[in-house]
């Protein structure tokens, strides 16, 4: 998501401290199958991208998607964009455009009020106000529009909640304060429940229950965390935010390498993914895993972006990461603000795949492997109910 400066730097700090060109467009999803549902591939990984859709990450155009696909020589199975609660809208035009293109929309649905600036604390769309039902009218409208759309879509609600930068971050809602303790069972240790994660889970369940009650069963929900929590403490680990298997279809991560001109270290791909991926597999034995966001900047004074692409895209195909079933690259270039660290202020972070000819060629060559799936696999799903 936009303005990712703080969380990227913190993720890198924690990491180091913890040791198709020429193809015709796919037929629209609407034409493919009745009541389609996205299937988790038995073999291979869906490839997708967020394609620099503007400051609010919602200016989706067919021209931008097709330009990106020609560049990387690969159709995108997933195309990502955002929907902020402060707009009080449903991204109907975007999801329909993406679906007609033959891709699955991934929507970052953020309970965030304008001006969408990080680290400003809790705003009007607080987790507690969501739990209290104060925004149910908006939830109902959004759900009704999603149901009417009727095609498969993935929703990342309130992402990176294990960080400290967004107004829905667990650290802002009591953090490590203990609200209850489960007694030991069958020799297992007692289990502590913490106020920050518990508040998030209640809000998540309220949103999912409300949307499902309106019949929007075409949505798959991805619990989308940052690779390394901030603060990196037991109460803030991924498992504490898991609302239950019935509320989650995918487990997701944001994974970023070095991004800023002022960075002092280059983060290799494997250690960034290794433990966070393992952490997710321990939460639930069956859920597929998605890199909802991943990327790295062009910083030749630190390391080779082309090699980072090659290492990462080869590594993700190995049996060790067999539950990784979708990756969505963050294709964006931005200018760091005047209030950022002096080494970054006013300078550009370029995560685009074509930040150099070498990076583009490495990305293009690796995603050409058929293991990286360019089309969503759809299966028949249940009929969607009528308006409640």
Layout of strands and helices, then pairs:
Elements: H1 5-17, H2 29-32, E1 36-38, E2 45-51, H3 62-72, E3 78-84, H4 92-100, E4 104-110, H5 127-131, H6 136-149, E5 153-157, E6 178-182, E7 191-194, H7 195-213, E8 219-226, E9 250-256, H8 269-283, E10 289-295, H9 305-315, E11 324-331, E12 333-335, E13 348-350, H10 357-367, E14 372-373, E15 378-380
Parallel strand pairs: 2-3, 2-11, 2-14, 3-4, 4-5, 5-8, 8-9, 9-10, 10-11
Antiparallel strand pairs: 1-15, 6-7, 12-13
Helix pairs in contact: 6-7, 9-10
Please tell me about this protein's structure.
With 388 residues, this protein is an alpha/beta fold. It has a single domain, classed as TIM Barrel, CATH 3.20.20. Helix content is 29%, strand content 20%. It contains ten helices and 15 strands. The chain has helices at 5-17, 29-32, 62-72, 92-100, 127-131, 136-149, 195-213, 269-283, 305-315, 357-367; strands at 36-38, 45-51, 78-84, 104-110, 153-157, 178-182, 191-194, 219-226, 250-256, 289-295, 324-331, 333-335, 348-350, 372-373, 378-380. The protein has an eight-stranded parallel β-barrel with strand order 2-3-4-5-8-9-10-11, surrounded by four helices. Strands 1-15 form a two-stranded antiparallel sheet. Strand 2 (45-51), helix 3 (62-72) and strand 3 form a beta-alpha-beta unit. Helix 6 (136-149) crosses helix 7 and helix 9 packs parallel to helix 10. The longest helix has 19 residues, at 195-213. The radius of gyration is 20 Å and the shape is globular.
């Amino acid at each position: 998501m936009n303005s990712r400066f703080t969380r990227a730097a913190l993720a890198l700090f924690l990491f180091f401290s913890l040791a198709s060109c020429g193809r015709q467009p796919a037929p629209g999803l609407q034409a493919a199958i009745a009541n389609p549902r996205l299937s988790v591939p038995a073999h291979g990984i869906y490839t997708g991208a967020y394609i620099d859709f503007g400051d609010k990450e919602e200016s989706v155009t067919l021209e931008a998607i097709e330009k990106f696909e020609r560049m990387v020589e690969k159709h995108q199975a997933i195309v990502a964009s955002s929907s902020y609660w402060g707009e009080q809208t449903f991204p109907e035009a975007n999801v329909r455009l993406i679906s007609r293109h033959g891709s699955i929309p991934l929507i970052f649905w953020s309970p965030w009020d304008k001006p969408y600036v990080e680290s400003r604390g809790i705003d009007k769309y607080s987790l507690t106000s969501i739990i209290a039902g104060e925004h149910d009218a908006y939830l109902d409208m959004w759900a009704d529009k999603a149901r009417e759309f009727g095609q498969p879509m993935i929703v990342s609600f309130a992402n990176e909640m294990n960080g400290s930068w967004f107004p829905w971050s667990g650290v802002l809602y009591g953090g490590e304060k203990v609200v209850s303790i489960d007694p030991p069972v069958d020799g297992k240790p007692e289990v502590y429940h913490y106020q920050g994660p518990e508040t998030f889970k209640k809000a998540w369940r309220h949103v999912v229950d409300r949307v499902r009650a309106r019949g929007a069963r075409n949505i798959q929900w991805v619990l989308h965390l940052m690779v390394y929590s901030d603060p990196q403490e037991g109460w803030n680990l991924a498992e504490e935010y898991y609302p239950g298997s019935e509320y989650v279809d995918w487990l997701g991560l944001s994974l970023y390498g070095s991004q800023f001109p002022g960075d002092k270290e280059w983060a290799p791909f494997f250690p960034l993914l290794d433990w966070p991926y393992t952490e997710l597999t321990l939460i639930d034995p069956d859920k597929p895993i998605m890199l909802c966001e991943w990327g790295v900047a062009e910083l030749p004074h630190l390391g080779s972006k082309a090699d980072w692409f090659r290492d990462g895209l080869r590594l993700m195909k190995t049996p060790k990461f067999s539950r990784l079933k979708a990756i969505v690259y963050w294709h964006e270039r931005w200018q760091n603000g005047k209030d950022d660290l002096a080494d970054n202020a006013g300078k550009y972070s370029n995560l685009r795949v074509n930040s150099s000819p070498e990076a583009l060629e490495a990305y293009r060559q690796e995603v050409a492997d058929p293991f990286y799936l360019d089309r969503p696999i759809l299966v028949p799903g249940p009929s969607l109910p009528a308006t409640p």
